[in-house]
Amino acid sequence: MKLFRISLILLCLLGTWSLSAQKLKKNQFDNPLALQRADPFVTKAADGFYYFIATAPEYDRIEIRKSKTINGIKSATPVVVWRKHSKGAMGNHIWAPELHRVNDKWYIYFAAGGAEDRWKIRMYALSNPSEDPTQGLWTEEGQIVSKVDKFSLDATSFEHKGQRYMIWTDRASNTVVNTGLFIAKMTSPTTLDSKQVVISQPEYDWEIKGHRVNEGPAVLIRNGKVFVSFSASATDANYCIGLLWADENADLLDPASWKKSEKPVFYSNEALKRFGPGHNSFTKSEDGKTDIMIYHARDYKDIKGEPLYDPNRHTRARVIRWTKDGMPDFAQDIDDHETALKKCKLKKKK
Fold first, then answer.
1. Residue 150's domain is classified under what CATH number?
2. Is residue 338 one of the residues assigned to a domain?
3. Annotation marks residue 117 as catalytic
């Protein structure tokens, strides 16, 4: 019996290692989907096409890939839709673009520093009336101005019960240097309502390693709750994902409506060579039935120099499952080749 179990485990491992040589099964992903692409965002449009946008390692441009499938993102040709300015605002550190369809128009929300001051990070928007965001003309809509306006970035937008909201990152404390998550209603696709509140800032040990950081929010509304995943700590192997949630009928602008995971829900796993997973987005499978998380991670731990300038944060995809009590299960101890490993586990139970 012991020999049988060992043989079965070896077969499972061999099956995982040889995935690239096999035909991928349903919701099994050809990871990494995109090399050297951090802060990935994937949206599934009404026509069924997937559009992929992410931070380029040179921090100098915004590009979009179009694909009929999630796995097709890997071979899709990037289309550059905008480049940084040579001077002034939007001239450096082009970070974390997101692509959203609002009022029959495409918007890209992104962060940028100044050409002369790369750390003067603010939020900006582009718009495009084309049905296909890889086509048509992109127009600069200017800065999305927030009240704090000190170090604003990582804007995401979502609609809930007929109201559009934005969640973004900025300095959230008057006593320590940190970044936290703000939320506000949107009065237009590029303007924020005057009420802007902090719903999370670093408080646990896993949120303050290297830097005190809450950033990269992503929204998933399911099972009567509004979930917000976010990234914490420095962008090395300490980077990880935490979770906020509120009742779908609660006042989302009341900080008391939000609960926060006391531990990270997704973090480095040395056994799986998955380091610094973070800054994710959510999308749906091709059949619209399964929630998919798109995120970045490195496959090695040790980094020389500033982690922000190590280019090897690669885009990956994995299935999000749900617990009996309606909470997302990020499956920390399961490899990204989800389907194959799950089948192996089922066989071992027999």
1. 2.115.10.20
2. no
3. no
